[in-house]
């Protein structure tokens, strides 16, 4: 029974489950997750209680950056299946009442993209090269990169080409790995091709697109230096007036995308990955004629601290009010340390790559307790929520992967000093007591090794155990769908002591999160809590959903 008024667009309240396809489920037993694997597990997701899935890139790709190096946006990589598999997945999901979002990666392609292959053999100044950002180098022989820009994965954002005669040639720009050349968004062919790609997937029934690196597409004319110094890291959320990020030119692109999406029936949406400096800059992407929503990376990066969370929530809602966009909330994704691990460290904040304080002890029990509290807090906020596969199982970051299995380009580009993001991408444990835990049904080894301790964390082991993370998620998602208090777009902060967050929603629904150092009394009718509430007191590092006002009749009405 859904109690969300039917006039509320689906994407204002949806819970969206992120699938990293290589690591979700393997359908052909080669140790790599794929689309048939996802199809086989759709009933699990329906029963979990989510509204939609978002599938990370599944396109043809050499996989230099886990598929974010796209060689062909209109085809599926053979490791994941075929275009027909993708179409079947979209149809199956719809038949189960799940919507489907996929990635679009507009800032850059792959070095295997036919346009880039053609550009490399074409002459400087040619139309082929103009689809990318090729430039002559600086210095007497062009031996210096054209400017000081840096790559998100470390080092310069420029790589020099070699001519057919084996001589050093022009340089090309890549804000990410060298295998990911940046497109030139001033080139009309690039714009037209991406509009055709959007149509290609909307025509196949996809309900939404997640826009990768959405703030990167426009670059300052002349590509001037940004003023980076030696050792500077890629910290886009701190950049102001940068020549490579968050330029005004991006907005006209999203305005044209929005009008394209609005031409389809049934509310096709965009969600932007837009790490920019503050909620005001973010809101510009969410004006009514641009992207529908964006990830709330500030919320994800908040430490487990009541003041910090309070201000992340308030700033989010205040920033979006001006443009009328709904909020989104998220705790983990395929780029960040899993939150069970983060919350189990003495310092719970997220840092840019390489800046995380090293060698912090992780207390997984503490992290798990906080993760349970965090999900109830997040799901009580007005807006839509993103879950990252495996968080519903309470999985932690695998921090001890052997070096030889690491695949994230960060590892290589940082000179083997920053391990990168593989630790949050380890394949899911579904069943059984030994790896691959039902990930590959025939028993093939998973592409990244799973910890043996995950035997207690499989879907099978947790199902039916009322104390498990999985059952907490299932119950919470059911309540969020059914209780009328979760609809609507406002929350009311109630006075509370330091370390405690008390949020009222409509219909007498209250969420209390206790991040203080002592138990906190929380009278009312308990709907759900992340730790047992004894004698009306909510323990430390716990969240409860309660009804405080049942004068109109307790929920559910009998
Ligand atoms: C953001 C994606 O989430 C990340 O995984 C990827 O490496 C970069 N964009 C580059 O596409
Ligand atoms: Ca496979």
Question: Quick gist of this model?
Answer:
With 558 residues, this protein is an alpha/beta fold. The protein has 15 helices and 20 strands. Helix content is 25%, strand content 15%.
Give the key terms:
eight-stranded parallel beta sheet; alpha/beta; TIM Barrel; binds 1-deoxynojirimycin; globular; 15 helices; five-stranded antiparallel beta sheet; 25% helix; 20 strands; binds calcium ion; 15% strand; Oligo-1,6-glucosidase, domain 2; 2 domains; 558 residues
Q: Average pLDDT, to the nearest integer?
A: 95
Separation of the first and last Cα atoms = 14 Å
The CATH class of the largest domain, by name, is: Alpha Beta
Beta strand %? 5-15%
Give me the count of strands: 20
User: How helix-rich are the residues, as a percent range?
Assistant: 10-25%
Unreliable spans are: none
Bound molecules: 1-deoxynojirimycin, calcium ion
Assembly classification: single chain
Strand order of the largest sheet: 11-10-9-5-2-1-13-12
Q: Under the CATH scheme, which architecture of the largest domain would be assigned? A: Alpha-Beta Barrel
Helix vs. strand class: alpha/beta
């Amino acid at each position: 029974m859904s109690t969300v008024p039917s006039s509320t667009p689906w994407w204002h309240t949806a819970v969206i489950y992120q699938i990293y396809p290589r690591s979700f489920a393997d359908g052909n037993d080669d140790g790599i997750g794929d689309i048939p694997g996802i199809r086989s597990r759709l009933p699990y997701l329906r029963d979990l209680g989510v509204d939609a899935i978002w599938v990370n890139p599944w396109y043809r790709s050499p996989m230099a950056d886990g598929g974010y190096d796209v060689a062909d946006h209109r085809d599926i990589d053979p490791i994941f299946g075929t275009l027909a598999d993708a179409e079947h997945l979209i149809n199956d999901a719809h038949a189960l009442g799940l919507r489907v979002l996929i990635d679009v990666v507009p800032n850059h392609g792959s070095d295997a993209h036919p346009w880039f292959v053609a550009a490399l053999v074409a002459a400087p100044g040619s139309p082929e090269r103009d689809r990318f950002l090729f430039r002559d180098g600086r210095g007497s022989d062009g031996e210096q990169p054209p400017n000081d820009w840096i790559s998100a994965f470390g080092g310069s954002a420029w790589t020099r080409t070699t001519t057919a005669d084996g001589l050093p040639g022009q340089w090309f720009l890549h804000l990410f790995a060298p295998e990911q050349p940046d497109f030139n968004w001033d080139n009309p062919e690039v714009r037209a091709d991406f509009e055709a790609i959007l149509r290609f997937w909307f025509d196949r029934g996809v309900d939404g697109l997640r826009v990768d690196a959405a703030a990167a597409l426009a670059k300052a004319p002349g590509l001037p230096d940004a003023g980076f110094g030696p050792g500077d890291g890629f910290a886009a959320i701190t950049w102001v007036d940068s020549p490579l990020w968050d330029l005004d030119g991006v907005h006209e692109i999203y305005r044209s995308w929005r009008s394209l999406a609005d031409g389809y029936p049934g509310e096709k949406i965009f969600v932007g990955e837009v790490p920019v400096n503050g909620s005001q800059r973010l809101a510009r992407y969410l004006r009514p004629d641009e992207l529908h929503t964006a990830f709330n990376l500030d919320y994800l990066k908040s430490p487990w601290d009541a003041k910090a969370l309070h201000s992340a929530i308030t700033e989010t809602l205040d920033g979006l009010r001006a443009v009328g966009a709904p909020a989104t909330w998220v705790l983990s994704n395929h780029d960040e340390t899993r939150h069970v691990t983060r919350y189990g460290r003495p310092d719970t904040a997220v840092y840019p790559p390489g800046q995380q304080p090293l060698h912090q002890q992780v207390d997984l029990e503490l992290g798990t307790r906080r993760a349970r509290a965090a999900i109830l807090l997040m799901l009580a906020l007005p807006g839509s929520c993103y879950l990252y596969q495996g968080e519903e199982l309470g999985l932690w970051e695998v921090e001890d992967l052997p070096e030889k299995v690491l695949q994230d380009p960060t590892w290589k580009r940082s000179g083997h000093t920053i391990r990168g993001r593989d630790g949050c991408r380890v394949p899911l444990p579904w069943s059984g007591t030994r790896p691959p835990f039902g990930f590959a049904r025939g028993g093939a080894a998973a592409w990244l090794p799973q910890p043996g301790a995950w035997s207690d964390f499989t879907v099978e082991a947790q199902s039916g155990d009322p104390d498990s993370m999985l059952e907490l998620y299932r119950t919470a998602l059911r309540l969020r769908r059914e209780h009328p208090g979760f609809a609507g777009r406002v929350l009311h902060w109630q006075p509370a002591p330091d370390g405690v967050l008390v949020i009222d929603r409509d219909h007498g629904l209250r969420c209390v999160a206790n991040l203080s150092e002592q138990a906190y009394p929380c009278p009312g009718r308990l709907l759900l809590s992340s730790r047992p509430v004894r004698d009306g007191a909510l323990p430390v590092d716990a969240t409860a959903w309660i009804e405080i006002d049942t004068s109109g009749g307790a929920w559910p009405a009998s």
